[in-house]
Hints:
By secondary structure, this protein is mostly helical. The chain has one domain (2-190). It has 8 helices and no strands. The protein has helices at 2-16, 18-46, 54-85, 87-95, 100-140, 147-150, 154-180, 184-190. It is elongated, with a radius of gyration of 21 Å. The two termini are 31 Å apart. The model has no long low-confidence stretch (mean pLDDT 76).
Amino acid sequence: MAKLRIIWKSFKLAYRSKRRFFVAVFMYAALIVATSYILNYVIVSSLPPATLDAMQALGMVGIASVLVLTTLISSIIYSLLISGYRKKEIATLRTIGWDMGSLRWFFLSELILVFVVAFVLVIEIMIHILGFTQYASALIGAPVIGLNLVAINPVILIVIFFLVLACQIGAILFGYWRMLKIRPMEAMRKA
């Protein structure tokens, strides 16, 4: 029960810094969408009958790898920002007796919150776009031509979810390591 209280406090604190929270959510959402579309295109194009030659497929895999690397770097940068901005809070919590496990949950839940909100936002927008295109096609009485441009295979979305989550875990470990180096007295003097 104490962990849920810590997670809830972290959620409230993350939402309180609205600008940084929303920028990170939209950044993760854009990376999720871009990586999903590239991966979807590579997988669908490689199915028989193949329309891509080997060089095009290799280029698309390269772009997907760059997007995954960008996601990892973005996750690390965001965890560095959070650990930097939260120095005073972390120092205060350590001073009043929070153990490192509670601080880990505090830090972990804020980073995971941003990622989960971005993923839910992507799914929500995709559902609304699909619903709108279906509604528009029913109104005009003709099938929508570009529907496959909007739809992302759910299996690919799940793969992207775990791929970005793996990037997040690496960033969380890096940010947590940086957070452990904060000494309460030094942070309180600087604050």
